[in-house]
Every structure is written in C-alpha cells, then in structure tokens.
Design goal:
Number of domains of chain A: 3
CATH class of the largest domain in chain A: Alpha Beta
CATH class of chain B: Alpha Beta
Shape of chain A: globular
Number of helices of chain A: 18
Oligomer: heterodimer
Helix content of chain B: under 10%
Largest sheet of chain B: 5 strands, mixed
Radius of gyration of chain B: 14 Å
Strand content of chain B: 25-35%
Largest interface: A-B, 57 and 56 residues
CATH topology of chain B: Ubiquitin-like (UB roll)
Shape of chain B: globular
Helix content of chain A: 25-40%
CATH superfamily of the largest domain in chain A: FAD/NAD(P)-binding domain
Number of strands of chain B: 8
Order of helices and strands of chain B: EEEHEEEEE
Distance between the termini of chain A: 23 Å
CATH superfamily of chain B: 2Fe-2S iron-sulphur cluster binding domain, sarcosine oxidase, alpha subunit, N-terminal domain
Low-confidence stretches of chain A: none
Low-confidence stretches of chain B: 97-107
Distance between the termini of chain B: 10 Å
C-alpha cells in the first residue's frame, strides 16, 4: 500500500518547519517526517517541554524557537514524528521506518532539511568515554535536564563553545578551563570581513558579551592551544596540550570538543544530488539554486544541510523553498512566489553578512582537521587510524571510495558522517589533488541502518510474524 | 558524571542497567540515564574492545549502542526510558578481540 503526497519534507528543525508552513499556507498538501518525537530539530530540541526547570537559562535564541514551533503545530501540515527516512529514490519515493503509516510514500516534490552534524575533532583520545561533543552536552541539558557534576573542560573553536560555557556558568556548573584552538592569525583574516559582520546586526555584541561573561567569572581561558590530546586507559583521565610555549597537563574526566558544524549530506548525496566543496566553511554541501533546488528534479535541500547558515537563516531559506514548492506544484504563480518571498530573501541575504567573518575567525586549524599522529582514529566506527589510511594512499589509493574498500573507513553505521571530511582532506593533502577533485564518499541508501523486517514488509505488504518490529518507542539501529 | 540538577519534573521510573535496578528521571534518554547513573562506558568496540560512550547525542554517530529490552544495537541517545526498561551493555562476547577484560578499571 503506497501513500501519495504533494510535498514531503524531511527534518523538523527551523528550515523544515518553515518550508512546511509556507507551502501549506499556499494550500499544498504537506507531510513532514521527523526522526525525533517533537518538532524543533537540534537547535530547538524539546522547546515545547523543556527538561530544565528554568529554560530562560538557555537563552532567548533557544526560547524564541517556540514561536516557530507553535506556528508549525497550528498549520495544516501533517506532522509524523518518530519516523526515520532511510531512502529517497531519484523518482521521489520516500522509504521510512518506525512511524505510523506505510513504509513508502510517493512525493511529487521533496525538501530535505536534515541539518548538520558536529565537525569531527580527530585528536588523540577523542574516542575515549568522557569525551563528547559540545553540541551533545548541550543536548543533554535540553533533552534530559542533565548538568555535569565534575569540573569540565571545553576545547576547540566556534561560537557554540563560548555559548555553552556561558550557559553552564548561568546554571552554576564549574568550568575548569576553556581551551581555544583558534589561531591568532584567524583574527587578522577575520577583520577583513568586519564590515559585513557589523551590517548583519547584533552578532558581534553577543560574542563580545560572552567573552566578557567568561572573564568576569574568571574562567581559565587558554588561547592558541596546540597538540591537544585526551589521555586515559579506558576513559578520560587527563588532557594535555601546548600553549604559551610550554606543555600543559590537566586532570579531567569530562572534555567537550567542538569545532563547528558541517552539513549532513548523506541523504542528499544518496538521492543523487551533486555536492560541491565550500572553501570558506571547509565542507562539502549540495549544490542548490536560490530556491534550494538541487541537481535532482523535484528535490530541494534547505537549512544547515545545504550549507551552514544558522537557525534564523535556515528559517528564511526554508520559507522561500516552501513558496517555490507551492509554485512548482501550481498553487501560486512565479510572480506571487517572488513577491511573497521578498521579505525572507532580504532577511536571508542580510543574515549571511556575518558568515565570512565567522568562517574566518573560527576556521579550524589544519592540524585539527588533518591529523598527523599515526595512531589517531580517523573512522570511529571501524577504528581505522591515520596510519592505515596513509599507508593505502602510499599504495596508490587516491579517492575516498578506494580507501573505504581497502580499510573499511566509512563503512560503519555512521556512514562517514564523522570521518568523511577528515578522509577527503587527508587524501587531498597527501596526493596534492584539489579537494574538489578528491570528492567525498559515494553514498547509497539506506542512509540509516534499517531492520530487514521493515524491507520485507515493503515487499510483502505485511509484517513477517516471527520478526515483527519491536515496540516503536524503542529505537533500534536507526 | 552528570546529575539532574534543576530539572523541570521529579517524576521517576525504575529501569534495569545490566540487571541492576536504578531509579532515573522519567522522560530522559537512555544515554542520559546511563550517564546520570555513573556509567560513561556504554559498550566495547568490535575491533579493539575499546570502551565507548556518548559522543554526538543526536542520533548520527552510532557510538552509544546498547541492548534495550532484548533488541541489540539501539541508540541510547535516541530512546526514551520507560518503567521497567532493561538495558544491557554489550560485553566481550561481541568483540572480535580475545582476552579483553570487559570493564577493566573505571565505570
């Protein structure tokens, strides 16, 4: 049994919700599929039912997300949570598992809004228990109301690092140190983009405010941190680094790493969308036009999944893509679309003014993207080290798929989300190729692990009796 | 390593971690429940038997895999606790490497 819909949107963050609202307001039949149990994506996670007693401590940027979520709930969009999309065919058949409804949905148009993942920070010991992403620690606050009860260290570069440190300070959490890997030379390069940053309003003041908060709280803030290492036999016990011309050691059991976020390209790439290298933000992203349309007919990509722009920009771009979908489906004419989209387009363009400054200021240093230490794990899932990868390059492998075949790098359940960029950059460096020539993993469906029983059900139309899916509230590999 | 300070609700549920009963806040993730109960090693990797725990906490890295109610390889960060849920952390029999001391020193 198949379901046919006009517009299927995948992802419940600001871009997805916004596209859904604008399309449905034009009369389009919209189905939004969300792997999470409530809308908001990662940035507005659980904003409808915060796990912390005082959500104001998470800041207004988080709280005002409730406005968009409320508009979304009040719209005519058909919202389907707890649903994992594991394939979208080039003919726009959407294969799902976990939620209510049939396992495949035919869509006249699809909008992918699957967002971003944290950029990896492949330092020695980064896989130790006790080392996690800053975004992950923030999710523990938003989703579970959990705060660290040991002194913690934050390390890396990027606005989220400072934001999280300030949120923790406001919640009474002890911060042992903030270790910034941002090279001093970044600031000089960023200054060239200062006018654009000032024009996009408010951002610089916010950043200055966070730095001043850390200073007032006398948080140990080390800059120019190099050779960061997490050390421990079975879990994190110590952090080591170079700074100020000498070696430092810090006992620690919790280290939060962050060096920005990058688009999750897996679903877009598996559909067949062409990817391009963005040298400003050092990542691959789908090639899209001003309405989010990709190289695949009827498939658009919006939000951070199309290139890192942040939540507000994602919202405005999503709105434009929803209007374009309505136009392509015949609900509004092109002139009406352009007029309705004008306000969002202006806001979107203005908001992009900050990006060159941020990208320059928080550009992750080469050493933290392209590890030199042979023992550093590149592929977390399959535990493939830098040494193994370089040995295969030495034997003639010149692209990520060759390395994948020879080493299993990228074959694990995360499907290259946390090793793909590192691998492509290592190959480019070692072979002297431009990274746009090196390319990225060849990604195929399923883009998330899916039980065979779900596939059997598609084939036969019924759930196999002996292998019925377990309780849908328990999430197996998905 | 993590605690539920300043949570919005005091409702709790009883779950089982490796057959030991633990009381945890209702509606938190299994990953959160493990961390709040003092477990930061969730599983052993198949290749080297190394301990792994929580990394991305958003369902994309697949490091936080535990067995839940008999189903192997569930993402702890993507599953919400329920009364009576049984969570077990995969032991050495799932590792290719032999002679691995399952939990060694540490949590």
């Amino acid at each position: 049994m198949k379901e046919s819909r006009e517009l299927v949107i995948i992802g419940g963050g600001p871009a997805g919700m916004s596209a859904a609202i604008s399309a449905s307001n034009c009369g389009v039949d919209v189905l939004l599929l969300d792997q999470r149990e409530a809308p908001g994506g990662q940035i507005y996670r659980r904003v409808e039912s915060p796990a912390v007693a005082d959500p104001t401590l998470l800041g207004n940027d988080y709280l005002q997300g409730l406005n968009l979520v409320t508009l979304f709930r009040e719209s005519t969009v058909d919202y389907r949570p707890d649903t994992v999309v594991w394939e979208v065919s080039p003919g726009r058949e959407v294969y799902v598992y976990g939620g209510p409804g049939p396992g495949v949905i035919e869509a006249r148009r699809v909008i992918l809004a699957t967002g971003a993942v944290e950029r990896s920070i492949p330092v020695p010991g980064w896989t130790l228990p006790g080392v996690m992403t800053a975004g992950g620690a923030q999710s523990l606050i938003k989703n579970d109301g959990l705060l660290p009860e040991v002194p913690l260290v934050l390390a890396g570069t990027g606005p989220l690092l400072l934001l999280l440190a300030c949120q923790y300070l406001d919640m009474g959490v002890e911060i042992a140190a903030v270790l910034e890997t941002t090279p001093r030379s970044n600031l000089k390069r960023a200054m060239a983009h200062l006018p654009g940053a000032i024009m996009s309003g408010g951002y610089l003041t916010k950043g200055a405010g966070m730095l001043s908060r850390l200073r007032r709280a006398r948080v140990r803030h080390v800059r120019g941190v190099e050779a960061l290492r997490a050390v421990g036999s079975d879990h994190l016990q110590q952090i080591e680094f170079h700074a100020g011309g000498r070696e430092h050691r810090l006992g620690a059991s919790l280290l939060l790493l962050h060096q920005g976020v990058v688009p999750d390209v897996n679903l877009a790439s598996a559909v067949g969308c062409a990817l391009e290298w963005d040298s400003g933000s050092l990542c691959f992203k789908p090639s899209v036009d001003q309405w989010g349309n990709s190289s695949v007919e009827g498939v658009a990509v919006v939000g951070d999944g199309a290139g890192i722009v942040g939540a507000d920009s994602a919202k405005w771009f999503g709105e434009m893509a929803g209007l374009d979908a309505a136009c392509q489906l015949g609900y509004i004419g092109a002139n009406a679309r352009d007029t309705l989209a004008q306000k969002s387009r202006n806001l979107y363009r203005r908001s992009l003014g900050i990006r060159p400054f941020l990208e320059a200021l928080y550009r992750p240093p080469d050493a933290y993207r392209i590890p030199v230490d042979p023992d550093v794990v590149i592929c977390r899932c399959e535990e493939v080290t830098a040494e193994t990868v370089r040995a295969q390059i030495g034997r003639g492998a010149r692209d990520p798929n060759a390395i994948k075949s020879r080493t299993r790098c990228g074959m694990g359940p995360c499907q290259g989300r946390y090793c793909g960029l590192t691998l492509s950059e290592i190959i480019a460096t070692e072979t002297g190729q431009k990274i746009s020539e090196v390319g990225y993993f060849r990604l195929r469906p399923p883009v998330k692990p899916v039980p065979i029983s779900a596939i059997l059900e598609l084939a036969t139309g019924e759930m196999p009796v002996e292998t019925a899916l377990p309780d849908p509230t328990v999430k197996p590999l998905s | 390593m993590f605690a539920c300070r300043g949570r919005s609700s005091d409702n709790c549920v009883t779950i089982y971690i490796d057959d030991s009963a633990v009381i945890v806040p209702a509606a938190i993730s299994v990953a959160g429940a493990l961390l709040a109960s003092g477990h930061n090693v969730f599983r052993r990797t198949p290749v080297t038997g190394s301990g792994r725990g929580a990394w991305c906490l958003m369902g994309s890295c697949f490091d936080c895999l535990v067995d839940i109610d008999g189903v192997k390889g569930c993402q702890a960060c993507a599953t919400t606790v329920r009364e009576g849920m049984r969570i077990s952390r995969p032991g050495p029999e799932r590792c290719r490497t032999e002679n691995v001391d399952p939990w060694g020193a540490g949590p």
